[in-house]
Amino acid sequence: ILAPQANRTQALNYGCIVANADRQEGLGGLGELGTVQHYVEKPSTFVSEIINCGIYLFTPAIFQHIGEVFQRNQQELVLEESSNGWQRAEVIRLEQDVFTALAGSGKLYVYKTDGFWSQIKSAGSAIYASRLYLNQYSKSHPERPGRKKLRGAPPCVAGNVYIHPTASIDSTAVLGPNVSIGEGVTVGAGVRVRESIVLHGASLHDHTCVLNTIVGWDSTIGRWARVEGTPSDPNPNDPYAKIDSETLFRDGRLTPSITILAIPAEFVILRSIVLPHKELSRSYKNQIIL
Predict the structure, then answer these.
(1) By three-state DSSP, how is residue 51 classified?
(2) Phi then psi dihedrals of residue 212, to 5 deg
(3) Predicted confidence (pLDDT) per residue in 7-23, tens digit
(4) Which of 24, 88, 173, 222 is deepest in the core (most CB within 10 A)?
């Protein structure tokens, strides 16, 4: 199990792992390996700050353990008073049924990593994950391939920015920090893009402002339009903080998040989600446009 560290409060939202500290070994300074002594999926009280991030490496022997769980479920199959029907034996939960049983057996290991990790359950969390990837990309590829291959004068770039080689960017555009420009994207004169992902084939017309936004495939943002979302970043003062999984609605209202859209000229779209194949005729705020 690949396992990063979370803070004590947010760890309750994940599978928590107690590892055998006496048997941990350094692996080239990249992390620590240890046997899993105890595993609890989303505990009600604090168990451990080491959490399951959903990345596993199994040997084929895992199928034997899954088979044992299946056989046990068949034997223990009962009609619960609180349920409306029979619990199906073939429904096997990897974390609750398999990992919990293997914990303490010496056959389940945890690899604790200090690398970045973020759960992506909302559009807003994708923006934060993109920032983490761009930061890692800037370290592993300091030359930032793609930007040097742009046609004409390069745009003004601040911070970590990835630009696909096929994108057409006006030299007066300002990009960054934390911007990803996809294949075949067109960015016009005077455009400002920050903390955003622009997917392939999108077109940002002259003097548009795009902040904390995901612009969908083949979308068009008209001239002088402004699209802006609300960032959903974790606590910057806590190195182990994770993004909280926000519900789409709270108290009957749309939870402020980033924006996904395509709009004509001179409109302002704030904290809204626009589904594909829509053309907007006015400005919107805190809306989901179907």
Answers:
(1) strand
(2) 50, 55
(3) 999 999 999 999 986 55
(4) 173
Cα–Cα dist 34/51, whole Å: 14
Q: What is the DSSP string of the chain?
A: -EE-B--TTGGGGSEEEEE-GGG-EE-TTSEEEEEEEEEEES-SS---SBB--S-----TTHHHHHHHHHHHHHHT----TTSSSPPPTT---IIIIIIHHHTTTT--EEEEE-S------SHHHHHHHHHHHHHHHHHH-TT-TTSTT-SSSPPEE-SSEEE-TT-EE-TT-EE-SSEEE-TT-EE-TT-EEESEEE-TT-EE-TT-EEESEEEPTT-EE-TT-EEE-------TT-TT-------SEETTEEPP--EEE-B-TT-EEES-EE-SS----S-EES-EE-
CA distance 38 to 41: 10
pLDDT value at residue 282: 81
Q: Is the pLDDT of residue 237 over 80?
A: no
Of 101, 109, 93, 115, the residue nearest 18 (C-alpha): 109
Look-up: residue for tokens 């560290």? 5
pLDDT in tens, 140-166: 877 764 454 555 667 888 889 999 999
* Distances from the Cα of 64 to the Cα of 56, 71, 102, angstroms: 16, 11, 12
Domains along the sequence of the chain with CATH: 2-113 (no CATH), 123-289 (2.160.10)
Q: What is the largest distance, in Å, between two alpha-carbon atoms of the chain? A: 71
Question: What pTM did the predictor assign?
Answer: 0.75
Torsion of CA 264, 270, 274, 277, to 10 degrees: 0
Question: Which tokens is 188 given?
Answer: 């016009």
Taking phi over 0 as left and psi of -120 to 50 as alpha, with beta for the rest, 286 belongs to: left
